[in-house]
Amino acid sequence: MVENAIKETTQPHRRRRRTAIVVSGLVLLGATAFGTHERQVTCGFSPVLFRAGWAGPCHGVTDGSYIFAENLATIEDLIRHENRYAEASKNYVTIALYRSMAPVPSDPSSPDAVRHDVEGAFVAQWRVNHETISGVGMTPKVRLVLADPGSPALDWDRVGDKLLAMVAPPNNLVAVAGLGISTEETKKFVRKLSNKVAMFGSNITSTELDGAKFPSLVRVAPNNADEAVAAVQYLSSEAKTKTALLVQDLNSTDNYVTTLGTEFKKRFPRSSAGRRLVGQVEKFDSGRTNLSGRFAQITSAICQVRPDVVYFAGRGKDLTVFVKALGQRSCTDDFEVSVFSGDDSTEVVFDEQGQVAAALKGSDNVKPVTISYTALAHPDMWTKGGEVPEGYTKFSTAWKQLRLGLDELNDGQTIMTYDAVLTAVMAIRGNLSQGSATPTVSDVIQNLPGLHDAWSVRGASGIISLDSNGNPINKPMPILKLNGDGSASFVRLA
After folding, report:
1. In what helix (H) or strand (E) does residue 250 lie, and over which residues does it extend?
2. How far is Cα 356 from Cα 378, in angstroms, rounded to an integer?
3. Number of domains in the chain
C-alpha cells in the first residue's frame, strides 16, 4: 500500500539512490520521460532543467527526480513514486504544477506555502489514480510534474517552452495547474499557453486573469470582485462600520493589488445608506524603497481621519510592514485600528522581534490592531461554518491517510491546489467513452465550458461550478481574523 512509500520518505531529507519502490502493491519500474529513476543532483544535461545564471539554482520541470528545495524532498519522493505507478498503466496524461518552488526573501510566498501547494497537488493526484472521482472513472492515470519558473517567476518564458514541448508523447501534458500569483509574469505565462494547454488557477484572483481574456484558462478561486463583495457584505453587517479608508498599492506589475483596491472602492460606498470612503486614497508603491517611512505617514493620516475600517489593497508581506507602523502610531488613546484585506493576508510574517504580534495584542498604552480578511479556504469554514460537504470529507480522508499533517491546513494553499488539480482531472476524463484513446489537449479544452451544474466539481473548498468565463459561481469564502500568535480564527462564511 501507499503507506510503504510514505514510511520510507518520511526519513530525514537526504538524497538517496533507489532502484524500485512498492506503491499500492505494484513494483514500479520502467522508463520515464525524464530519463532516469535516480535522484538528479544538478541541472546537468537535463532537457527540462536549466540554471538561472552561472551559479543560480536550477529551474524548469521535474517529475520529482530533482529536489527544488530541501523542505520538498519528502513530498517530491511521493510524487515520483506515484508517477511510476501512472506510467506503468500505459494510459496516462501529465499535469504540471506551475509555481515558484524555492522562494527568495523578497518573494511573497513562504516555504510552507510552497510545500502546501505541492502537497495539495499530490493528494489530488493520488486520489484520482486510486479512487473513482465524481463518476468519471479512473483513467487515464495522472502523472504530476513540478514546473518552477524561479522566484520571482522571471523564467516563465523558458518554463513555458519546456511545458509546450511536453504536450507530445511520451509526456502527454494536457493541463497546467496552480499558476502562482496574480502578477505580470503570471499574465505573460498564461498568454503564452492560452489555447495551447488547459490551465487551472488555484490562487489567482485578479479580475484581469480569466477565460474571457485567455481562452483555456479557468480558476477555482473567487476573483477580486467576489472578494470585495464578500468584504463589503461582512463590513455592512457590522453596525459600527460606517466609514472606510483605502490604502492602495500602486505596483503596476501586480494585478492582485490593483484590482483588489479598484473593486472595493467601487462597492463600499454603494453597500448601504450612510457608508462612505473617508479621507483620500492613501497610496504606496511596493516596487519602491522606504515602505516603512511611507506607512508611518499613512498611519498619521489614519489617526486624523479615524475610519471605522482601513481596507488594505496590498500583499501580505507589505501588510506586515504596515501593521508594524500601526503598532507605533501616535494616536494611543481609545482608537483601535481595524484593518481588512484580501486573501494574501495569509502571508503576513511574524517577525522575530515580535513587532507584529505586539501590534495585534496591544498594550496598556496602545489599543490593539485587528486584521480580518477574505480567505480562499479554511478547514473551519465547514466544521464551524456549516454542513461539511462531500468534497471536503473526501479530501480530508485522503490527506489524513497520506499522513501529510506536518502542520495545519489553515493557509488554504493545500485545499485550493488540490481543487485545481481535481478540476483538471474532471475536464480530462469528462465525456470519455469506454476504452477511448488518451485525451489530447484539444479534448480537455473542449470540456472546459461544461464544468458547471451536473458537471460541477465537488471540491474541498466547495462546489466548483464555472461560468462562461471560467470563474466559479457563488463560491463560498471564509472571513478570518489574524491572531497575535500567528494563527487565524474563523469568523463567518461569506
Report:
1. none
2. 22
3. 2
